[in-house]
């Protein structure tokens, strides 16, 4: 099957996921619970302004050698705290246009990947449920599996990841249904 016959479901599912995600985040606002306020945000901000760092991800305590964990002084730094991963962003309001464009590009990449896998495994006129299950599963992996890594390695609370996985399931369902409806030969 020529890949060109799959551009319509790729583009339509990308746009639909973009719109559904906008609704979930702007109307339902269930991700507001993902972010906590520090007890004394002003003092923490003042301390960070005194020692500015370029944008990046920082580790406190900054210990990268596992052998160093045997050192009592290093253990004390962990025990005394704070223990944190800090994502330091550029000053200024969030660049929502840029972030939304990157989200749209990611959604396109996931839909494109679902189309690629489906093209390799399914024929035109394939059973609609099979098309939906396959493309939905690929989309779910694309949208959702990163949340597991965030909770395992970055300390992101599992509740945050579960909310993201619910979103991923919705995006996967939207993608799968649209591929089913727009699959060539149906």
Note poorly predicted spans. none
How would you sum up the global shape?
elongated
Cα(first) to Cα(last) distance is 14 Å
Q: Quick one: how many beta strands?
A: 2
Question: Radius of gyration, Cα only, in angstroms?
Answer: 22 Å
- As a percent range, the share of helical residues equals 55-70%
Strand order of the largest sheet: 1-2
Strand content: 5-15%
Query: How many distinct helices?
Result: 6
> Which sequence of SSEs, written as H and E, runs from N to C?
HHEHEHHH
Give the integer mean of the pLDDT values.
Answer: 96
Structural class: mainly alpha
Characterize the main sheet.
2 strands, antiparallel
Structure description:
The longest helix is centred in the middle third of the chain and has 26 residues, at 96-121. The chain has 186 residues and is mainly alpha-helical. 63% of the residues lie in helices and 5% in strands. Helix 1 runs antiparallel to helix 6, helix 4 (96-121) packs across helix 5 (128-153) and helix 5 (128-153) packs antiparallel against helix 6 (158-182). The two termini are 14 Å apart. It contains 6 helices and 2 strands, in the order ααβαβααα. The mean pLDDT is 96. It has a two-stranded antiparallel ribbon.
């Amino acid at each position: 099957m020529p890949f060109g016959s799959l551009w319509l479901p790729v583009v339509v599912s990308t746009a639909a996921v973009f719109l559904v995600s906008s609704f979930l985040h702007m109307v339902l606002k269930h991700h507001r619970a993902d972010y906590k306020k520090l007890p004394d945000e002003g003092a923490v901000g003042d301390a960070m302004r005194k020692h500015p760092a370029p944008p990046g991800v920082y580790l406190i305590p900054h210990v990268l050698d596992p052998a160093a964990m045997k050192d009592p002084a290093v253990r004390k730094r962990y025990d005394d705290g704070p223990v944190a991963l800090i994502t330091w962003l550029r000053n200024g309001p969030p660049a929502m246009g840029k972030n939304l464009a990157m989200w749209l590009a990611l959604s396109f990449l996931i839909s494109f990947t679902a189309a690629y896998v489906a093209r390799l495994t399914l024929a035109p006129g394939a059973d609609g449920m099979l098309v939906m299950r396959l493309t939905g599963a690929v989309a779910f992996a694309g949208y959702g599996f990163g949340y597991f890594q965030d909770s395992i390695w970055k300390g992101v609370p599992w509740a945050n990841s579960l909310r993201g996985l619910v979103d991923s399931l919705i995006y996967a369902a939207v993608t799968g249904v649209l591929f089913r409806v727009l699959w060539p030969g149906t």
